[in-house]
Amino acid sequence: MSAQNNAKWYILHTYSGYESLVKKSIEQMVENGNLQDVILDTKIPTETLIEEKNGKKKAYEAKVMPCYVFVKLVYSNELWFMLTNTRGVTGFVGPSGKAWPLEDDEVKRLRLEERVVDFDMVVGDNVTVISGPFEGLVGVIKEIDVARQKAQVTLNMFGRETSVDMDFIQIEKINNPTIVEG
Fold first, then answer.
1. What is the pLDDT of residues 4-25, one digit of tens each?
2. Can you tell me the distance from the alpha carbon of 161 to that of 44, in angstroms, rounded to the nearest whole number?
3. In terms of domains, do 35 and 93 share one?
4. Is residue 159 domain-shared with residue 97, that is, in the same domain?
5. In a domain, 78, yes or no
6. Based on the number of CB atoms within 10 Å of its own CB, is 117 exposed (0-12), middle (13-18) or buried (19 or more)?
7. What confidence category does residue 176 fall into, taking pLDDT thresholds of 50, 70 and 90?
8. 89 pLDDT above the threshold of 70
9. Over residues 142-156, mean pLDDT
């Protein structure tokens, strides 16, 4: 069984506003210490929100769970020590500060690893957004990035076309698009 099969997702608690610093510090630690086999991924879950100021609407990324960084790793006491002594980290989330792995359903619900294997859309396809702040909007795929599991979709928002990066799981192909003449 490879190390990747033993890896689980854990949650680190950080000081407010230190999430990005902690993520960068862990990524640097992985690179400098050649720890790619034991620390596989680091994420700060975000979502796209729309804010209206002075009559103008603007989309921005917001942290879903401020003060938390998610790390996929093969747990060891040495890694616990290294991670809890990273600047900005207050400890692991778990009983008495002990690392407690997330269950598979929690990982899926937090969308830490959700991958789409049967993505059958191509550039130019009409799609509808099925989740997120743009839910219900219809658009056209302009670009596809299979490695990142994202598609650039042009949506008609606020009276003009806007390009938005969407996860594959957020969009659905429209099989029989209806043409609306205006």
1. 668 999 999 999 999 999 999 9
2. 29
3. yes
4. no
5. yes
6. exposed
7. low
8. yes
9. 86
Q: How many structural domains are present in the chain? A: 2
Residue 141 pLDDT more than 80? yes
Domain encompassing residue 63: 6-109
| pTM as predicted | 0.62
pLDDT given at position 1:
43
Q: Show which of 82, 109, 136 is a domain's final residue.
A: 109
Centre a 10 Å sphere on the Cβ of residue 155 and count the other Cβ atoms it contains. Answer: 19
How far apart, in whole angstroms, are the C-alpha atoms of residue 108 and residue 73? 17
E strand or H helix at 14: strand 8-14
DSSP H stretches of helix in the chain = 3-6, 19-33, 77-84, 104-109
What is the rounded radius of gyration, in angstroms, for the C-alpha atoms of the chain?
Answer: 20
Q: Which two tokens stand for residue 57?
A: 């609407």
Say if residue 141 is in the same domain as residue 100. Answer: no
Quickly count: other Cβ atoms within 10 Å of residue 124's Cβ.
Answer: 8
The size of the chain, in residues, is 182
161 domain residue, yes or no: yes
| 59 vs 178: which has the higher pLDDT | 59
